[in-house]
Design brief:
The structure holds two protein chains of two kinds.
Chain A lengths: L1 H6 L23 E11 L10 E7 L9 E3 L3 E3 L5 E8 L1 E8 L6 E2 L12 E3 L4 E9 L3 E8 L10 E10 L2 E12 L5 E7 L2 E7 L3 E5 H10 L4 H6 L10 E4 L2 E4 L16 E2 L3 E2 L12 E3 L4 E2 L4 E2 L3 E11 L8 E6 L10 E6 L5 E8 L1 E9 L11 E6 L3 E5 L13 E9 L4 E7 L1 E2 L1 E10 L14 E5 L9 E5 L4 E7 L2 E7 L7 E7 L2 E2 L5 E3 L4 E9 L4 E7 L9 E7 L16 E4 L5 E4 L5 E9 L9 H8 L5 E3 L4 E7 L5
Parallel strand pairs in A: 1-9, 10-21, 10-22, 15-25, 23-31, 33-41, 42-48
Antiparallel strand pairs in A: 1-5, 2-3, 2-4, 2-6, 6-7, 6-8, 10-13, 11-12, 11-14, 14-19, 14-20, 15-17, 16-17, 18-23, 23-26, 24-25, 24-27, 27-30, 28-29, 30-32, 33-36, 34-35, 34-37, 35-36, 37-40, 38-39, 38-41, 42-45, 43-44, 43-46, 46-47
Chain B lengths: L1 H15 L20 E9 L11 E6 L5 E5 L5 E7 L2 E8 L6 E2 L12 E3 L4 E9 L3 E8 L12 E7 L5 E5 L14 E7 L2 E7 L3 H4 L4 E3 L2 H15 L23 E3 L2 E2 L12 E3 L4 E2 L4 E2 L2 E3 L1 E8 L9 E7 L13 E3 L6 E7 L2 E10 L5 E10 L6 E5 L1 E2 L1 E10 L10 E7 L6 E3 L4 E2 L5 E7 L2 E9 L6 E7 L2 E2 L5 E3 L3 E9 L3 E8 L9 E7 L13 E4 L5 E7 L2 E9 L9 H7 L4 E5 L4 E9 L4
């Protein structure tokens, strides 16, 4: 597989063309460049037909997230896998290729799920042999049976890929959602190579029976009930009374009928081979394009308790979603929503069937939810049914909302728990300031140009990011955050400036999650500089030519820190070089580092301390001082 | 959000008119729930072994929907419901991989028979046979013969729409999805026996968004020649600075996928029907998608001067004869340029309706529609002339001595009368004010039935709605201009018809469909309040409530398909075997009906 990487010579790709080579550029940029390419199966080397290839030009002034605008129609490759883009203007381009059954490919991508590169074209440039590689999806398949050995039909299966989130090992859902068929067989496809947990996922959704009755009589279903997906009618087997609640059926395995005292046995989320705990599950390693079969599961129903209580202190206590998460979602290997319900008119809630275990209860009211955009729609009736089509012009975001929330741990043991009282409290606020630190006595730009988003790292919270604001004096505020763990995203700073650091009470929170527990956060400092601390350079191969196939890994010289990456994930970085072989890691906290260039397709689990140990051998530490722009040329080498 | 709620109301309202037995006893307000009757029994496999079947979701619903319960069969297949109030119950069972079965049904998945039970009584003999569903499985391939993952396949069969038209309609089973896997394999299970067509719906990325051009050998060859030539020249000095159109290659054609039917047909009428017997596993239903030429629809809007074009949305609705799903929320839409132009790119061949709507405020609304057939050859052009929305207003009256309901509980709605591929912009139901007046704004010209309903229980029945001197309840009216003076009348003197159904040997016939329809053939329209159908109970009785007075035919048949009674051809066939009966206002009439054999 390596061969093709090296076959792609950097001569094809001209980057950083010296300015002034095309003198007398007319006002309207001429469209004279031409790209011919080929899409190839990375596993077999065979060209792939029917691939949808798209070229997008990078906008001249990149907004925070680099955005590309469509300039040219998409094309489908013919039988030789080839594609042509004509009449391209000069500029920077991204080329992507997709075909069902393959991971998406892109120009410059050297490994499944790896980074892409920008293609830089000059006027009239003609490129004839650009190559894009696609990797086949991997798949996991197996059979699910219940405690009696009967196949479990029609339940949801998910694979969770091991990854590193902010320096911590986590498992996040990957690949397609799969459902067991009538033989209990499932097949999760669309997977990247990697380490996975496989689970039969079960979130118990319920509403109080009285609430369901109210809703049914009232006609309109509160959006919270729709959002949690609760069935409100017990008819046709869609849900079942468990005590005074209506438990939604379907999606997960059907357990036995509830007992006379209103308790039910349910199938909890179960990981391969047969455990409810992700920590005790077997990790399945899947290679590129590999099919792992025989990943079977056996489900066993467990006894449950009834947990009930009331939410107080809400603006309007009706239909507030209440979620039960496994342990503390922030530190667990994997986020698991165990049960969801909504409050009734009096703010009361009940979880009718909760297995014994450690949980956290989480209630958020009034926050914007992802996907919860409101807008008008046009309802079109046909002879056969109704079509609802959203109107374009009238999508309005809620702008005035007040957040109330609560989150606390809950241990469920031998007994039912009743009369929990959940007091909602106002959203937390963040305060601080921004600083522009100039080394050249530049005039300080306006702070209001800088956008900040405070984003929850909880995947199941479905909270929309909250925008923070700077006033003209540089004071920073972000209002109405439910407690939890957040990361801070800062939009692109004014031209000529870079964000050097974000600190929260003296701690570095740049790219690092910060916890908001009980009180407002004060003392956030955003420091912008016109001279960022950074490392720049070019990666060359043994022959001394620049190497577009490399990634650069930077990590602290102090090996003590390697196993505690989460303390300072900013010091552990990997960047893909540009097509010219150039790289830039900016900003970087000042310190002593190893910088190593390796072939991008040889990067495995680079955050593993033993891998870092191997990389560090024979490398010389580099010290980068505050405000220093260190230039380094790196020679590529195979790890180990 | 508000308009989504309105949608829910419209949907439930629209269906109200048609479903069996739901117009029944709203007039008896009753506490939900609890009584002293019980129903119990056993679920077994519907095969010669008749094994007990565990983990079946067994449900009972009473006829008016006030009681709905579900339990799970135990390891011996047994189930039990206690504490039921007296009433008429439908019983059924559902289990993944099996055909959802109603008690008393004469075919798997067919309509069931109601069980009548009194307070204190116990029915212990309910035997519910569940048939293991049949399976259709195969592989979906792309035009190059490679598997296509991620396509949500549909099994379709001919069924009556709510308007009494026979169409290929997607079958719903207990399955969550029928999506092809990475090998292109799909497996649709839980199917009742019958005749099926299989459809692969168009794939989103290949049938929406921007144009997709198919590369040809000559495109590639010519481009490679240019590259070769230019490598001998100085970069920067090359040719063709005149062309300004962005594009891929010159002679490549725009392609995409359209919905394809097994064994590869583009239109449903050419699909091959697969007969499926009980519990059969039919393998090898493999087929291949083909690229189809895609078109761009270009259009222009002619707007009156008082309309703000910025608030205009244009919707593209496919109006072919197949129902791939009951509701489709993925209608394509676009906005209009300042010059009043719009376009839809990447449109597969087929019939469409374009609907333009500009809602500026609750009272100011403009609309236009146009039908168009896209053939993949020509580039269709449309011109839409925006017209102001119409308003239908009037008042609600109550003819009777009962206490009037709270007027705010009354909703008036215009239900469009559509057939075939016709579409209509829905207007929101109107509330009635304190003086009994209502006003439905934003109405599009067309044929409508003017209906009204009272939320919650009441003893009132909608008896007529008169617009411009014509009844717009029995017969849809043509709305061409705004109208005032509509009168919607509720009556508290509904008639009823009850009785029993007997078979040829004089025995009570359970699970027969009793059909009541007007003697006047001009009233044979879908959702007419005079066309009624109800399943007989297990002891062969039926009870039709809230009937308008008039002259009717009544008959009873085994195995009638849902909504078949709205098909005039069907009614014409059953007239000879039907009995004529006249029902007066407020009359509680009893008749006995002999079950007839099916005439097809």
């Amino acid at each position: 597989m390596n061969a093709f990487c090296w076959a792609l010579t950097s001569a094809l790709v001209i980057a950083s063309l010296p300015q002034g080579q095309v003198p007398g550029l007319p006002q309207a940029a001429p469209r004279t460049a031409l790209v011919v390419g080929q899409v190839i199966d990375a596993g077999t080397g065979v060209p792939i037909s029917g691939v949808l290839v798209e070229v997008r030009m990078q906008a001249a002034a990149p907004p925070p997230a680099p955005s590309f605008s469509t300039q040219t129609p998409r094309v489908l490759t013919g039988s030789d896998g080839r594609f042509v883009f004509r009449r391209l203007p000069k500029g920077s381009f991204m080329i992507t290729a997709e075909k069902p059954g393959y991971l998406n490919g892109a120009y410059g991508r050297r490994r499944p799920g790896g980074d892409s590169q920008t293609l830089v074209l000059f006027d009239s440039q003609k490129i004839g042999n650009l190559r894009i590689y696609l990797w086949r999806h991997s798949a996991i398949t197996g059979t699910v049976v219940d405690e009696a050995g009967e196949p479990v039909v029609g339940i949801q299966m998910r694979a969770f890929l091991r990854t590193t989130v902010a320096g911590r090992r986590r498992f996040v859902a990957g690949g397609a959602v799969a459902w067991t068929d009538d033989r209990g067989i499932y097949r999760i496809h669309g997977l990247l190579p990697g380490d996975y947990l496989v689970a039969a996922v079960s979130t118990k959704v319920s509403v109080a029976a009285a609430t369901a009755e109210d809703v049914r009589r009232g006609g309109a279903v509160p959006s919270a009930i729709t959002e949690v997906g609760a069935a409100i009618v017990a008819g046709r087997g869609s849900s079942m009374h468990v005590g005074d609640a209506l438990l939604t059926l379907g999606g997960s395995a059907t357990g036995p009928a509830p007992t006379n005292d209103g308790h039910a046995f349910v199938y909890p989320t179960t990981f391969h081979p047969n455990t409810a705990s992700p920590g005790r599950a077997t990790v399945i390693t899947v290679g590129s394009g590999e099919e792992r079969s025989g990943i079977d599961l056996q489900l066993v129903p467990v006894a449950t308790r009834r947990i009930s209580g009331v939410v107080v202190g809400a603006d309007n206590q009706t239909a507030i979603p209440v979620r039960l998460m496994a342990e503390d979602a922030g530190d667990a290997l994997l986020e698991q929503e165990i049960a969801t319900t909504v409050t009734d008119r009096a703010g009361a809630f009940v979880f009718p069937a909760v297995p014994v275990g450690l949980y956290s209860i989480r209630v958020v009211q009034g926050a914007r939810l992802l996907g919860g955009r409101t807008g008008t729609s046009t309802v079109i009736q046909t002879a056969a049914g109704t079509i609802s089509s959203a109107d374009l012009m009238s999508i309005s975001l809620l702008s005035d909302f007040s957040v109330r929330w609560a989150s606390f741990p809950l241990a469920v043991g031998r007994d039912d728990i009743s009369n929990l009282s959940i007091a909602l409290r106002p959203g937390l606020n963040l305060f601080g300031r921004g600083e522009f630190v100039s080394t050249q006595a530049k005039s300080v730009p306006r702070f209001s140009q800088v956008s900040v988003l405070i984003d929850s790292i909880a995947q199941t919270a479905r909270l929309a990011p909250v925008a923070g604001r700077f006033d003209d004096a540089g004071r920073f505020t972000a209002l109405g955050l439910p407690g939890g763990r957040y990361v801070i995203h800062v939009g692109s700073p004014p031209a000529g400036w870079a964000l050097q650091s974000i600190t929260f009470n003296g701690r570095d929170v740049f790219d690092t999650p910060m916890d908001l527990d009980n009180t407002d956060g004060t003392g956030m400092i955003f420091t912008f500089t016109d001279r960022p601390t950074e490392a720049i350079g070019t990666v060359r191969n043994g022959a001394g030519t620049s190497d577009p196939g490399a990634s650069v890994i930077v990590f602290p010289a102090d090996s003590q820190t390697w196993s505690a990456m989460w303390l300072s994930p900013r010091r552990f970085r990997r960047v893909r070089v540009e097509a010219s072989g150039a790289f830039k890691i900016s900003p970087l906290p000042a310190g002593s580092y190893f910088l190593v260039a390796v072939p991008d397709d040889a990067i495995g689990d680079w955050q593993d301390p033993s891998f870092l140990e191997a990389l560090s051998r024979g490398a010389a530490p580099v010290t980068i001082a505050e405000g220093e722009s260190k230039t380094l040329d790196l020679r590529i080498r195979e790890p180990r | 959000m508000r308009s989504l709620c309105a949608l829910c109301l419209i949907v439930s309202f629209g269906l109200c008119a048609g479903t069996i037995a739901q117009q029944s006893s709203r007039d008896v307000p009753r506490k939900p729930g609890v009584g002293t009757a019980s129903i119990s029994g056993i679920v077994v496999t519907d095969d010669p072994d008749a094994r007990p079947l565990r983990r079946v979701r067994v449900f009972v619903n009473n006829a008016d929907g006030e009681v709905a319960r579900t339990t799970i069969s135990d390891d011996a297949g047994a189930f039990r419901f206690d504490g039921l109030p007296s009433g008429r119950y439908l019983i059924g069972g559902a289990k993944e991989g099996y055909v959802t079965t109603n008690y008393g049904a004469i075919r798997p998945g067919g309509p069931g028979s109601t069980v009548v039970i009194a307070e204190g009584a116990a029915r212990t003999d309910i035997r519910l046979p569940l048939l293991r569903g049949a399976v259709i499985t195969g592989t979906l391939l792309d035009p190059e013969g490679q598997p296509i993952p991620g396509v949500g396949m549909r099994a379709l069969r001919y069924a009556y729409t709510a308007n009494g038209e026979r169409r290929l309609t997607a079958v719903t089973t207990t399955m969550a999805g029928h999506v092809t896997d990475d090998r292109g394999v799909y497996r649709i299970y839980g199917l009742p026996p019958g005749e099926y067509a299989i459809a692969a719906p168009a794939i989103g990325s290949m049938s929406s968004g921007d144009e997709i051009l198919m590369m040809t050998q000559s495109d590639v060859q010519r481009a490679l020649d240019e590259v070769r030539q230019s490598s001998r020249q100085q970069p920067g000095s090359a040719s063709d600075p005149t062309s300004t159109i962005s594009g891929a290659a010159d002679d490549s054609r725009a392609v995409g996928y359209a919905t394809t039917f097994y064994p590869g047909a583009a239109v449903p009428s050419q699909s091959l029907v697969i007969p499926l017997s009980r519990t059969e596993e039919r393998t090898g239903i493999d087929f291949q998608l083909q690229y189809v030429p895609m078109s761009t629809i270009r259009g222009s809007i002619i707007a009156p001067s008082n309309m703000m074009p910025s608030r205009l949305t244009v919707h593209l609705i496919a109006t072919d004869e197949v129902m791939l799903s009951e509701t489709n929320s993925e209608g394509r839409r676009t906005s209009v340029t300042a010059k009043g132009e719009f376009s839809f790119v990447n449109v597969p061949p087929g019939p469409y309706t374009i609907v333009a709507k500009a809602a500026q405020s609750a009272s100011s609304f403009f609309w236009a529609t146009s039908d168009i057939v896209v053939d993949g050859q020509s580039e269709p052009q449309v011109s839409l002339s925006m017209q102001p929305g119409l308003t239908i207003s009037g008042r609600v009256t109550f003819d009777g001595r009962s206490a009037m309901p709270v007027l705010s509980r009354v909703r008036v709605v215009l239900v469009p009368f559509l057939s075939g591929g016709q579409v209509s912009l829905a207007s929101a139901p109107a509330r009635v004010d304190n003086s009994g007046r209502f006003s439905i704004a934003g109405v599009v010209a067309g044929k409508y039935r003017l209906q009204a309903a009272i939320d919650g229980p009441s003893g009132w029945m909608l008896s007529s709605s008169v617009v411009s001197g014509r009844d717009a309840l029995d017969l849809p009216m043509e709305v061409r201009q705004s109208l005032d003076g509509a009168v919607v009348t509720f009556s508290d003197r509904p008639a009823e018809l009850s009785g029993s159904v007997r078979d040829a040997s004089g025995q009570p016939a359970m699970a027969a469909t009793v059909i009541l329809f007007p003697a006047d053939r001009t009233l044979w329209t879908p959702h007419s309040p005079r066309i009624r159908a109800e399943q007989s109970t297990t002891d062969g009785t039926f009870h039709l409530r809230r009937l308008p007075a008039g002259e009717y035919y009544v008959t009873a048949l085994a195995d009638v398909e849902e909504y078949e009674w709205y098909d005039p051809a069907f009614l014409e066939r059953v007239v000879p075997s039907s009995a004529k009966t006249t029902i007066a206002e407020d009359e509680k009439k009893a008749v006995d009906v002999i079950q007839q054999s099916r005439v097809r």
